[in-house]
Design a protein that fits this description.
By secondary structure, the chain is mainly beta. About 5% of the residues lie in helices and about 35% in strands. It has helices at about 5-20, 335-340, and strands at about 25-30, 35-40, 45, 50-55, 65-70, 75-80, 85-90, 100-105, 110-115, 120-125, 130-135, 140-145, 150, 155-165, 170-175, 180-185, 195-200, 220-225, 230-235, 240-245, 260, 280, 285-290, 295-300, 310-315, 325-330. The strands form six sheets. It has a five-stranded mixed beta sheet, with no helix packed on it. A hairpin with a 6-residue loop joins strand 18 and strand 19 (about 230-235). Keywords: Signal.
Length: about 350
């Protein structure tokens, strides 16, 4: 066999070893700056990723905040190094370019992202002159110099957003005194001037206070896709206290959580890079991103100082820092495969 042919064959074999099939429909993904890694939701213990998206064509550099839309496309916002939100199909793998991108030319401080049922993007920026939630219409691409911006007059430091089952926008942050606030705006009624529907704040909530600090994501919100229960990952600025508080759907006012997950047995160690700290599967499992490519999974209804029901640990080399987390579950996989060419 000729030397050049040997090299070619060896290269092909090496690529086959690195390549992965797309993850199963029920999967959880870690977003780690320059890459996205996926794992089966059935995994427990040491496991190899079932899907890896990484390479120069992806344009991923500091990806953190990520959401999966109803057609299972990834919407990935990058923090500081880029003002771009990239959209990738469900089976995106290896060095694959995004299927669509849009650029928010006025800011690159993209800390959190959400998508409604109409596939409109909501992107949280913390740049002082632009702080708030930018609304990007479905199918937008290219530079977007003047998107609609939703601001919350009670929030001094924005940290996280989510969309509920009714297509209303939840904004989490801290007021000027450092008190935690989670406000819900009626974006199901208006995208340009939504009314304030309810506000969750006060001492009974047990939400830990924070102090203004640029680029800090020490509170993350996520919604149970079935029940709309609100999960709040929150930590003090020095990260000495960490808890996940669960509130009833549409909780409002100064009300306590229905349960709280916290304590040494949980194994939750603290917040990391900007991005979603938690995600909720369609069966109610809480998934928490941890450093060293670890994911802690807690059973539906878990409360108190309880150990995870699963620990997913990537057995392959990769970044040791913590990134964002996003889950895909309970979807109609066959229908979404037909949408992959969108």
């Amino acid at each position: 066999m000729k030397p050049t042919l040997c090299v070619a064959v060896a290269s092909m074999l090496f690529w086959v070893q690195l390549a992965h099939a797309a993850c199963p429909n029920d999967a959880v993904f870690l977003v780690l700056g320059d890459q996205i890694r996926g794992y089966s939701l059935r995994a427990n213990g040491a496991t190899e990723p079932c899907q890896v998206l990484q390479g120069p064509l992806t344009t991923l550099m500091t990806a953190g905040a990520t959401v999966i839309d109803k057609k299972d496309f990834f919407h990935v916002a990058q923090f500081l190094t880029s003002s771009t939100v990239d959209i990738f199909p469900r089976k995106a793998e290896g060095n694959e370019a995004p299927s669509r991108s849009f650029m928010l030319t006025s800011t690159n401080d993209l800390l959190s992202i959400a998508v409604d049922s109409h596939l409109n993007d909501f992107v949280l920026t913390i740049r002082p002159s632009e702080a708030g939630v930018l609304v990007v219409p479905n199918s937008s691409s290219g530079p977007l110099p003047n998107p609609t911006r939703i601001t919350d007059p009670t929030i001094n430091q924005y940290v996280s957003i989510a969309i509920d089952k009714d297509d209303n926008l939840l904004i989490a942050g801290y007021d000027i005194r450092g008190a935690a606030i989670i406000d819900t705006f009626g974006t199901s009624r208006s995208l340009t001037s939504p009314p304030l529907l309810r506000s969750l704040t006060g001492s009974k909530t047990g939400l830990l206070p924070g102090t203004p600090l640029f680029g800090r994501n020490n509170m993350t919100i996520a919604l149970d896709p079935r029940t709309d229960e609100l999960f709040v990952y929150n930590a003090t600025t020095d990260e000495t206290q960490i808890q996940v508080s669960v509130f009833a759907a549409k909780a409002s006012g100064d009300v306590p959580p229905v349960r709280t997950i916290s304590g040494p047995a949980t194994g939750i160690t603290g917040s990391g890079l900007p991005g979603n700290e938690i995600a909720i599967s369609s069966d109610g499992r809480l998934l928490v991103a941890e450093p060293n490519l670890r994911i802690l999974a807690f059973a539906p209804g878990a409360r108190g100082n309880v150990a995870p029901s699963q620990i997913i640990e990537d057995s392959t080399p990769g970044p040791i820092a913590q990134g964002g987390i996003v889950v895909r579950s309970g979807r109609r996989g066959q229908q979404n495969e037909q949408d992959d060419d969108r």
